[in-house]
Write a structure and sequence with these properties.
Nucleotidyltransferase, domain 5; 60s Ribosomal Protein L30, Chain: A; alpha+beta; Translation, Eukaryotic Peptide Chain Release Factor Subunit 1, Chain A; five-stranded mixed beta sheet; about 400 residues; four-stranded antiparallel beta sheet; globular
């Protein structure tokens, strides 16, 4: 499978040397009759793409060469045996890219001079990356994750060893970080998983908290070497008692208030990622709502627009800071960047592009933020809404 990232956007939007076929469909994770139907649906989409290419006047040998890599996928048992929620296949004379993604795409076939990327916007545009700092008695670990997965990041040598080693705990002595877990006292993480809690003797003493604070100050100082130039969110994972003490030591400005409560040693990497991603989704929703409010109460009316004829040229010029587009709507038309001429059509006409897709991809290419949301959530029921940089 190919990896989808914003870094690949320039290549996806580049000249593909001919027609581009973009296929989208839902897939089923569970075994059964529905899973067996997925390859059949994919074949129907390929047949539809072939019909569109024929209607555009392409020769049989051109069509066969273009769609051959996609037709090979029909016999790819690995692909159909381990599906996610959606499948996207982008084929051109230069490449045939396959993406399995956690989104149930509506069935869609697009044949155009460029790839149709709007269904992929949630994976190309949202600020998905996060750091996860796990605090436990046995280890301090740092991970980097996104909606697709999570990986361990080696810590610099300046980060002290385990909490137990640093505080010089010895076997047989009472440990104020003694771990207990039961149905009655287990805390629940944000992801809904049972988590061990640390409690025991002396947890309320000033001496214990001072020791922990000094230890976390050392951890924070070591992490500064890695994180000082970063701006992505940091999520904490640990027992409830440790979290406020670490926050007191922390100097990283992008730490989130929501955390994964519980002993991270008892949680798998997948469980930690799922819980962290739930926190990230909540944070993203909050950020979106704050930005949407700026359309209702703009500080400067000249810096907002819901008119696609203004938004598309501004996106090409790099003026769009933040763009909302209706992911379940199309706005057909033509745009000539060299002439800055734009024509909008109520229905798709030959040679048209979805101008929402054009505005979104150009915004991303110029470093702007794009939020693809349902039409019902758009401000004033507009198809697009932009905040301009100037």
């Amino acid at each position: 499978m190919d990896t989808l990232s914003q870094d690949a956007l320039t290549d996806l939007l580049g000249d593909q040397g001919g027609p581009c076929v973009s296929l989208f469909m839902p897939t089923h994770r569970r075994a059964g009759a529905e899973v067996l139907q997925d390859p059949m649906l994919f074949k129907q989409l390929l047949d539809s793409a072939e019909q569109q290419l024929v209607a555009r006047g392409y020769k049989e040998e051109q069509i066969e060469a273009l769609l051959k890599p996609a037709r090979v996928l029909l016999d790819d048992q690995q692909l159909w045996s381990h599906p996610k929620d959606g499948l996207a296949v982008l084929c051109s004379a230069r490449a045939c890219l396959t993406y399995q993604l956690p989104a149930a795409f509506p069935e869609r076939v697009m044949v155009a001079e460029q790839f149709y990327l709007k269904p992929l916007l949630p994976f190309l545009s949202s600020q998905d990356r996060f750091f996860l700092l796990a605090l436990s008695q046995n280890a301090i670990t740092l991970r980097e994750g996104d909606r697709f997965g999570i990986r361990m990041i080696p810590l610099p040598e300046s980060v002290p060893g385990s909490l137990a080693e640093s505080l010089q705990y010895k076997e047989g002595k009472e440990n104020f970080l003694e771990s207990h877990s039961s149905a009655s006292d287990a805390l629940m993480s944000k992801g809904g998983h049972r988590a061990a809690i640390f409690h025991g003797h002396g947890t309320g003493t000033d001496e214990a908290k001072d020791q922990l604070l000094r230890y976390f100050q050392q951890v924070n100082k070591g992490l500064h070497e890695l994180l000082h130039a970063e701006t992505i969110p940091l999520i904490l994972a640990g027992v409830a008692y440790l979290l406020p003490i670490y926050r007191e030591a922390n100097t990283y400005p992008h730490i989130l208030m929501d955390a994964i409560e519980g002993n991270p040693d008892r949680l798998s990497a997948e469980t930690l990622r799922d819980s962290a991603w739930e926190i990230m989704q909540s944070q993203q929703t909050k950020t979106q709502q704050e930005i949407l409010q700026s359309f209702r109460e703009p500080a400067d009316i000249h810096l907002i627009s819901q008119n696609i004829t203004d938004i598309v040229p501004a996106a090409y010029a790099g003026r769009v800071d933040t763009l909302f587009v209706a992911i379940d709507r199309e706005q057909w038309g033509k745009f000539e960047p060299t002439k800055l001429s734009i024509t909008v059509h109520e229905q798709e006409e030959p040679g048209d592009k979805d101008l929402l897709d054009v505005a979104a991809t150009q915004t991303l290419l110029h470093g702007g933020r794009v939020y693809a949301i349902e039409y019902a959530q758009m401000p004033d029921q507009a198809f697009a809404a932009a905040l301009f940089r100037y």
